Amino acid sequence: MACPPFEFPPSFVLRNICDITGSAFGLKRNAAQEQAKQAAIQWFKRFRVFDEKKARQWLHYGRFDLFAGLSFPEAELSHLETCLAFFFWAFSTDDLSDEGELQCKPDEVNHGHEASRRILNDPDAQQPDYPYAAMLWDILRRIRSTGTPGTYRRFVQAYLDWSGSQVQQASNRNVDRFPPVEEFILMRRCTIGAAMVEAMVEYSLDIDLPDYVFEDPIFIAMSQATSDIMTWPNDLCSFNKEQADGDYQNFVCILQHAYQLDLQEAVDMLTEMIGTRVQDYVDLKKRLPSFGPEIDAELSRYHIGLENFTQGCVVWYYSSPRYFRELQPLGKEQVLIELFPRVDTYQTDSSEDS
Q: Long-range contacts made by residues 110-117, C-beta under 8 angstroms, separation at least 24?
């Protein structure tokens, strides 16, 4: 991977985004988090994605159980286990293309997704041998068992969009392409899997809404706002990790490139953009039409669940050694982030596996 068309300083200041998003979104924690963690870890280890040492490091630095506990606070135990399994699958799959040898190899990224695409619409398909597809096969089975057909259909379409965006992102890396800002925003909603998350919120709460609700323009605009609000803080928090991995498909870098900003200016600009999107969501929510008392009540449950996920997501970013290693920024008004040294390959020792 070539060097980016700008140089990074040794550090930058990161504000507390949790306070910005927390002005509109609530935060809770699922009491069944520890029970779900134990069951989901045993499930994940069965697929032998990593060796024992690597698995311990990856799970320790990820703190994915905290992510699930904060993001699905009202899910009952079996649903929470599935949501945590979803995180294990999603992050381990995403890391294949975000780190190491597949960063800049779109054809190989696409090949890795083919086994998963083949099982999406075949409930009678046998569990694949490829471990990432095998994990997805079991998650799909669980979603079908209690979710509505609409929930399952939305998850499948979201997977296809996410899969395609992973390939496009690898292609951008391969040719050192920095997409225009608006193009990147649309692609980033897909690469983070925001629509899959929305389907998992549906699943976690056994939400049952008619399809026409999901087609309402205000509903769609609210969905786009929460997608950006959960995504853009990720780019702020993961920037250090990604620049060390030689990955510049990050909104901070896109803003630097588009507007010829230095690092701190781009970080500050993205921080302000997040605040604007939070206000957009608040304003849109006031304009959401009524669909009748029963549907409105179910829709309220869905939006509370999505708001909980969004805030839980941002708090997890600030809590996870995956992004900050030994630094603990949660609860601080701002923190000075010292840039990690660049690494050429994906490391497996505990100092780099984050």
A: 110/167, 113/163, 113/166, 113/167, 116/159, 116/163, 117/160, 117/163
